[in-house]
Amino acid sequence: MNRRDLIAALAASAATGVPLAAQAQPSTIKYVVPFPPGGLTDVMARIAGQKLGDALKVSVVVENKPGGNAQIGAEAVAKGPADGSQILAVTLTHAANVTLFPHAPYDFVRDLRPVALLAGSPMLVVVPETSPVKTFADLVALSKQKTLNAGSSGNGTPPHLTMALFNDLNGSRMTHVPYKGGAPSMTDLIGGQLDVIFSNFPESIAHVKGGRLRALALCSAGRHAQVPEVPTTAEAGMPGLLVESWTAAMAPARMPDALVDRYARELIKALYSPEIEERAKALGFRPSPMGGEAFASFLTEEIARWGRIIKAANISVG
Questions:
Q1: 3-state class of 251 per DSSP?
Q2: Which is it for the CA torsion 175, 102, 165, 156, positive or negative?
């Protein structure tokens, strides 16, 4: 299937089956990012938002509303106007929050609806360059022999969840060491205060290329162009350790189907444009556009998957 046919098929999959009627379209769309400026979710929202605005001939403004483990911004959109004037950037964190925050001031599943999955960034298993652990198999074996310290950017974050999934699959008991962000955890890993981090790809790749960290495996279905020599976890013997820190767009549950379909189609087209593909890949993302029922099913599976891991590992954010 060529690029044009692929885009057409993906765009069609985004539709709910409701014809695109003469639906009032807002002159400005607020793209709410529930994280601070400059992070990967923020950057991807700005890239996709610009293309969405160009396609719809409206202004798309990114507004950062961080806090509450990404709940403040999510609540604002969930309880805000449903006329198409705002959409929400969501990540794996929101899927985990359904279990982590059972008494949240909004209902993620009931109050928000899927628009489009945009891209995923694979988790990278890294150790200090000075570590005696040379391969992923070494890590698997050593983690069964002794308790290793695994850092993360905080409780309930993708690195923490990936570590918990590793323990679940491997029968090991790594000690979780949470930090306030990815940068300080990387500093201590490089310094040898930690044994391993199941890292967000962009947070560790520069250190890998700079020779300060050793990449053992990529938690992805395929190898990554930036580190083609690094095997996937499946190749390294643990196919179940498949984790991508994805980003997507959602909208208030009451937003009209016609607008949801239109936004989904344009976002999917944007992610398959050569320009956006290259920019996304340079950031460590793999474009993986998905809309409609396919994205809804993916989201349901992610909520269930991480709910099970969180409960099994007794993870809390309190």
A1: strand
A2: negative
Beta bridge partners of residue 194, listed in sequence order:
none
The rounded distance, in Å, linking the Cα atoms of 51 and 56 is 9
Strand pairing category for 286-291 and 112-128? antiparallel
Per-residue pLDDT of 196-205, as tens digits, reads: 999 999 899 9
Q: Enumerate the H helices of the chain as residue ranges.
A: 3-14, 40-56, 71-78, 92-100, 108-111, 136-145, 158-170, 182-190, 201-209, 257-271, 274-282, 292-313
pLDDT digits (tens, 9 = 90+) for 244-297: 999 999 999 999 999 999 999 999 999 888 888 888 888 888 888 999 899 999
Q: Phi, psi at residue 28, to the nearest 5°?
A: -135, 135
Do the bridges between strand 28-33 and strand 86-91 make them parallel or antiparallel, or are there none, so unpaired?
parallel
Is residue 111 within 8 Å of 78, Cβ to Cβ?
Answer: yes
Among 15-19, 68-72, 296-300, which is the least confidently predicted range?
15-19
| DSSP state string for 178-191 | E-SSHHHHHHHHHT
Residue of 8, 41, 16, 7 whose CA lies nearest to 255: 16
Q: Is 17 exposed, middle or buried (0-12, 13-18, 19+ CB in 10 A)?
A: exposed
